[in-house]
Amino acid sequence: MNYNILLTGGAGYLGSTMAPDLLAAGHKVTVLDNFMFKQSSLNHVCYHPNFSVVKGDIRLEKTIAPLLKNADIVIPLAALVGAPLCNMDPIGATTTNHDAIMLMLKLLSKNQIVLMPTTNSAYGTGDENNFCTEESPLRPISQYAIEKVKIEQELMQHENAISFRLATVFGMSPRMRIDLLVNDFTYRAVNDRFIVLFEGYFKRNYLHVRDVSRAFQHAITNYDAMKGQIYNVGLSDANVSKMELCETIRKQIPDFVFIDAPVGKDPDQRNYIVSNAKIEATGYKTSVSLDAGIAELIKGFTMIKNSMYGNV
Q1: What is this structure's pTM?
Q2: Range of the domain at 217
Q3: Which among 166, 224, 225, 278 has the fewest CB atoms less than 10 Å away?
Q4: Does residue 180 belong to any structural domain of this protein?
């Protein structure tokens, strides 16, 4: 079955991968984005007759309300993502990550479907074994994680919602983010061959950006069986520490050097092992391994380099 899908923040890191996939699956896709990063990541789908784009702010009721009326499914990706960005603009983070989603939930009918990306960073440091399922206590530390937890609580009052607690995402996307951990470490390995780690023993889970898109498509296909639930989504064989991640990168870049130093602190204090068994039980399987994603990033960073204020 094909749907009218509203993708807010659809020109971002996740959305610019997800929008083409949804169009290819036969859905009509409307993207709402403010294009704050001046991205042109959806150029390649403008030809598609089922693609529409609106430049606007999700925080404005006059903008979001008419778009919601025409949507069967809403995928709210628009957000200030990650602890550092939220710390830099805490007011913008609250109005975008919390207030705008509350407005959206108020405007939705009970029959409209919401597929919401949240975050497994809310687990903090997990239990004494650092092991987390969807039933584990949430211990969010950063503003980003705290507001995602609040939104998830409100979201699950909506009878047609699914929450995906995403692992740390990695991989190449038309709207690239180099600041995500695997992407960042691989970029440094390619360009600097060196990195100083902090809290190198901290573990977290990872997920390729294309597998994020596949998780949302899986939920659309299996919606009746999955609705009203919260799911962790990640690579079950990639609950690895920062040190182990560096060792994995070094398999492909042998002269990559890394040391663990007693400086710095993870703003989310993420240190956990996450179970993805619940979503796997619905038939969902990831398709891109950590090794394959790193190989992809190495190719990408052969083409991409942040050198705006340098001569080389």
Answers
A1: 0.94
A2: 4-170+206-235
A3: 224
A4: no
Length of the chain: 312
Residue 196 lies in a domain: no
Task: Give residue 124's pLDDT.
Answer: 78
Instruction: Report how far apart the first and last C-alpha atoms of the chain are (Å, whole number).
Output: 51
Domain count, the chain: 1
Residue 244 domain-assigned? no
| Other beta carbons less than 10 A from residue 180's beta carbon | 21
Nearest to 202 by CA among 145, 118, 267: 267
The pLDDT assigned to 127 comes to: 58
Segment-wise mean pLDDT, segments of 10 residues, the chain, 312 residues: 96 97 98 93 97 96 96 94 82 88 93 93 73 90 84 91 96 95 97 93 95 98 96 96 97 97 74 94 98 98 80 61
Residue 187 lies in a domain: no
pLDDT in the model for residue 147? 85
Both structure tokens of 266 = 């993870």
- 228: CATH: 3.40.50.720
Which two three-digit tokens encode residue 262? 């007693």
Predicted local distance difference test score (pLDDT) of residue 308: 67
Q: How far apart are CA 127 and CA 113, in angstroms?
A: 33
